[in-house]
Amino acid sequence: MSFDVSSGVEELKLPMNARKEMVLIYKEAVHNASKYSSATCVRITLRKDNGTLAMSVKDDGKGFDPSLHPDGHGLGSMRRRAQVLGTTAIITSATGMGTRDYSTRRPCPMARHLSGANDRLAQSL
After folding, report:
1. What is the DSSP code string of 33-95?
2. What does R_g of the chain's alpha carbons equal in angstroms?
3. Does residue 120 form part of some domain?
4. DSSP secondary structure string, 78-113?
5. What is the four-CA torsion angle of 17, 28, 103, 87, rounded to 10 degrees?
6. Cβ atoms within 10 Å of 26's Cβ, excluding its own
7. How many distinct structural domains can be found in the chain?
8. Domain range spanning residue 7?
9. Residues 6+ apart with CB under 8 A from 95
10. Is the C-alpha dihedral spanning 16, 27, 10, 112 positive or negative?
């Protein structure tokens, strides 16, 4: 498992509900990768990009056909949580493709810079 956090992310402060929903989307994506994908590598990325916070979880597993699981409990939960954030969960995969991509972009108009350099998003999650 690897984490890639771009510069600027650690300076953001998101509302408590936004942090909660993003953590739960992340948790479900990592759970799915560990339980179903047979992956050897999972990569989690957080990026601050043009006023959004983008989160992506990718794995090198066996993949699946998302159209066969349109209302799956976990996938549906990720989509609903993304809607609460005002965004969408994009789930890209195919059987044998070897990569699953769960991503969401959260607009950050309410995000503000913190004065302390030691305040990190990961700690506040």
Report:
1. HHHHS--S-EEEEEEEETTEEEEEEEE-S----GGG-TT-HHHHHHHHHHHHTTS--EEE--T
2. 15
3. no
4. HHHHHHHTTS--EEE--TTT--EEEEEEEE-TT---
5. -40
6. 20
7. 1
8. 2-108
9. 62, 63, 64, 65
10. negative
Per the model's pLDDT, the better-predicted residue between 101 and 48 turns out to be 48
Q: Is residue 89 within 8 Å of 27, Cβ to Cβ?
A: no
Q: Using alpha carbons, select from 102, 89, 103, 108 the residue that is nearest to residue 48.
A: 108
The encoded tokens of residue 85 equal: 């954030």
Residue 56 domain flag: yes
Cβ–Cβ < 8 Å for 106, 14: yes
DSSP 8-state assignment for residue 2: E
- Give the CATH number, domain containing residue 34: 3.30.565.10
pLDDT one-digit tens code per residue, 11-69: 888 889 988 998 999 999 999 889 988 999 999 999 887 777 888 888 888 988 888 87
The pTM of this model reads 0.77
The confidence score (pLDDT) of residue 108 equals: 55
